[in-house]
Every structure is written in C-alpha cells, then in structure tokens.
Amino acid sequence: MTTKTKSYPVAPGSVYVWRGFKSASITYDQFAQFLGAVFVPACALLQPAVGLRAYLPMMVPQSNKPAAVPDQTALMFWATPQSHDLAAEAIAVRIYQNLHGDAYDMTRSKLPEVPLSLSTVGPLQPEQPYYLLDQPADWMLGKVYHLVGARRADLTPEAFLAAAGAWAWGFHNQPPAGVDAALVCCGNDYGAAWVHGPRSTPKLGTALDGLAALTVPVLQVAPLSQPLPAGLWDDWPGLDLTKTPCLNMQFHRPPAARAAPRKSGRK
What we know:
Blueprint: E1 15-20, H1 28-46, E2 52-59, E3 72-78, H2 83-87, H3 91-97, H4 106-109, E4 116-117, E5 130-131, E6 143-151, H5 157-173, E7 181-186, E8 190-197, H6 202-205, H7 209-212, E9 215-221, E10 224-227, E11 247-250
C-alpha cells in the first residue's frame, strides 16, 4: 500500500531565493561536483528538522551563458518566515551555512533573498525577489517550471525591468489556470522566475512565456523530483548534477518541525 505524502503548504514569503555565482578558483565541473556530493545533500538532510519544507536547487547551463547570469539558483521554503534565521542556532545548520565560501563567489552571490509581495510595492527593483500570488503552497509536491534568461540585447536594463514588471503585474492580476504560486527576480541583465501548480497542466507549462520573450532563455525546465537515496552516514558519492542538474528534492518533513533548535540544557 502506498502512503500518500502529507502536504505542508507555507506562506509565499517563507522562501529564500538564491542566485549563486561560482568561485573563480574552481571550474564549473568542480562546482557541480561539490554541490552534488556535499552541498545539496547536506541542505536536504540537515535542515528539515528545523523547518525546511521544500528545496529546489538548479544548475544553470554554461553554454552561451553570459557572465552576468547566475551559475546556480535555488529555492528554500521554510515552515515560517522566522524559521530560516532561527535554524542558525543549530550546530548542524551553521556547519552547512559555512560551506558556501567553498564554492561561491560570495561577493557576487550575496544578494537579497527574501521576497516581497508584488501587491505592496511599485516598480521592480533589480535583484529583489517578489512573490506574485498571496497564498500558501507546497512547492515540494505538485509541478514546478523554472526560467533563467539573459536580458535581450535590444532592451536597456531600465526597459527590461519595466517590461518584466508589467508582465509580473499582469500575472498577479490574472494568474494562468492551474498556477497557485509564482516568484520572479530580475537583475539588470537577467531574469529568473518560478511557477508552481498542484499538477501539470498546459497553462502551467507556458506560464513564463511572457517573461521568456524579454530574454534569451538559458534555462527552461521542470525540475525532476529527486528523493534522497542515502543518509548522513551511508557510503554514497552524492548526486551527479551534470546528469540531473535541476531538482525538486523529496525528503521527510517532520509534522512538527521545530521553529528553533532544542536547547542543550547547559547553564
């Protein structure tokens, strides 16, 4: 008998939107190997106990990718907007967080990650993530589509952000059928967006076409649902992100994930 996975929808502002640029000291193959062997499994294994509810890491292809476009993106959804910061009280989470400098150029990658509601702001600001629909969703279950594209050369950064903002507002005012959540983040030279629905539908698959038309797409993908085949103490080489570069990690979510780590009891 198959046990149905319990759904844990979270508020749209309970996500961290990562756009990462690899360190210049490593090759892209080394970057992908480190993320697959260490970084991605560590995130999915160490953080659900303190509130991680969904994790979608994506490697961006290097072929014809302009330098201004991120090398990797990720979404990390938390039980509450406070869970991410409270999680850092746990030793395991601090260990994971300190891995960033081994792979990333943190000067370029340290960008705003907490999204704002599009309905409460004005024009899109560069590098600020936004959520387009004000309702909870469970991004680990259902279907996701992701777009990363370089700004079209015939658009200035100002014109690109204005057109992307118009697209985002149109999406907010009239969401495509089958979509229950969406995120967008545009820099001066690239756009990234994600949509989610409880199931795959034709409208969900084309929901990002309007933003894609403003870019030269580098990545357009529905991430693969990826269970963890091993635990922290198993003999396992990790994930091969060169073969499966875009993932929606499937992991056990405690029904009462702690908003903060348990206290040690020391005085």
